[in-house]
Amino acid sequence: MKFKLRQLEAFQAVAKTGSVTRAAKSLGISQPATSRLLSDFSKTVAIDLFRREGGVLIPTSEARYLLSEVGRVFDSLQHLEELNRDLTDRTAGHLRIACLPGFATTLLPELLAEFLKERPGVSLTLEPDRPERILEWMIGEQYDCGITDEFTGHPAVEHTNVPIKTACVLPKGHPLTELGCLSPLDLKNERLIHARRDSPFYTRLSNTFADYGVLMNTWVEVRQFSTACIMVGQGQGVTIVSALDAEQYRNSNIEIRRFEPEIHHWLSILKPASGSRSLLSLDFVDTFMDSLGPYISDTKDRL
């Protein structure tokens, strides 16, 4: 059974107005054109659609059953139009974000709450995991974007590496907080909480200390900067981490000081290289990048 949407419109219009003439006027077409649409539809469904009573066309019992279904069709079409408009305006859809665990508990919750507040029709999946897993998801196109660090590239993934400033984090009231800026020389006797030894950031930090002739007094090795900040907030050791992470714990019994010479931590934003690119995910990446503004280093280096 094949029929055209215009035939359904003519059928519904005649049923509402009781007249082919009035139906034609409401549809903005001629009376003969409306009659032809109605006749073709009647032949397609193989039933009589109307009977005439006192000069008014009245739907038959079979036609009344069809009318309820036709009404649902037009309701669905209207919903589809509204959904398309919402998607175009980025106010509906589903956004899938994979990120490092630290982001899922610090920066992103507040940022996403504000992002969703302006887009009430949008739903969200936020999945934290280790960098290796995030890369797998991006290759498999399971997520719209990923937030990781120190990403060096993969053919199936597009990426933007953002250099983030670093900062020294000390317990509140620590004697070194009297200084506005700290160097490896100032930290030579301090117990350091630092990134894993197999991380590129640790390598850069270790090389910086070596350039100053200072041996790092390593104490605790952690995967996440957030862990280091929490431990320092408990009065244990000092750490050098991303300024972005340090800021999230500013009110947790810590002091933040500039660290020189400047080294940076590379934050990486990943997107699948193939597949459709939703406007919603592009909006989120723009919003996320804006939030990084105060922490981005002006270095000309590349990862």
UniProtKB/TrEMBL annotation:
- Mention any Pfam family matching this sequence: HTH_1
InterPro entries per record? LysR_HTH_N (IPR000847), LysR_subst-bd (IPR005119), WH-like_DNA-bd_sf (IPR036388), WH_DNA-bd_sf (IPR036390)
Listed A to Z, the keywords are:
DNA-binding, Transcription, Transcription regulation
Question: What GO biological process terms does the UniProt entry carry, in alphabetical order?
Answer: positive regulation of gene expression
One term of GO molecular function: DNA-binding transcription factor activity
User: Domain HTH lysR-type: where?
Assistant: 3-60
* Family according to the record: Belongs to the LysR transcriptional regulatory family.
Task: Note the PANTHER family from the entry.
Answer: TRANSCRIPTIONAL ACTIVATOR PROTEIN LYSR (PTHR30427)
Q: What is this protein called?
A: HTH-type transcriptional activator CmpR
Which species is this UniProt entry from?
Falsiruegeria mediterranea M17
